[in-house]
Amino acid sequence: MSGESEEPGRSDSAADAVASDVGGRAVGVRGRRRFPVGPVLLLAVAAGLMWVASRMTWVTVTSSDGLTEPRTDELAGGTWFGALTPLALVLLAAIAAVFAARGWLRRLLGVLVTLVAAVTAVPPFALLTDSGDPGQRGATLAELPGRAEVTGVQTAVFPAVLALAAALAAFAAGVLLARMPRESAELSGRYDVPAVRRAAAGAELDKARSGEDAELTERVLWDAIDAGADPTADPAPRDPAAPPTGADGDRPRGGGAE
Fold first, then answer.
1. 165-193 residue pLDDT tens
2. β-strand 57-64 against 71-76: which pairing, if any?
3. Is 0.85 surpassed by the pTM of this model?
4. Domain end: 155, 178, 201, which one?
């Protein structure tokens, strides 16, 4: 009887230890979640600066056709660089994608953001360095008649600087995303069949409670919670009257005759 009374005691102690370990991991899941706050803030700043720059006047074109009074056209950033507003929307969409993506997909997103930043930087840089012919481009964008002649072109520095600052912020965000360390939760686990993930999570919890080696990752704990299992709960007490089981889960075979 003493052996039978000691066995449940050891089992309860082991169960308490496993439950404490699993519970500690479950409680620490939220604390271990790493949100890329820096890249998200940089993306938001870049999108905001791009939107503001697209509403400001970049180039003022003065023209005359010899028949009417001189004409003045103010070309905003969204006109001078037509992709500026769409690229700002792309950066806003990238913010949502940052939270949805994990692992290599988030790094790929960082590479795409750096490409957007490079494209954004080209027009303001060309405008600030007087590259190209702003008068001819302004005449085309202002849709001047064929007989009109451009008499003056005035470029604004501040909107172009804003666009360059937005490009630099987006580039920094892309670099940070591309260099983020690999997280504990694998991306592929998010696209598995939910029922399969929950069943696998339950199996891992059972292995941990029985004292076997189990991979209790963050994804496994969350799948177990989604399945309705409590990672901190003690395992069901074993019936003392039940016959012992072997390592393979089968009842030991006696040497006597059946």
1. 999 999 999 999 988 765 433 444 444 55
2. antiparallel
3. no
4. 178
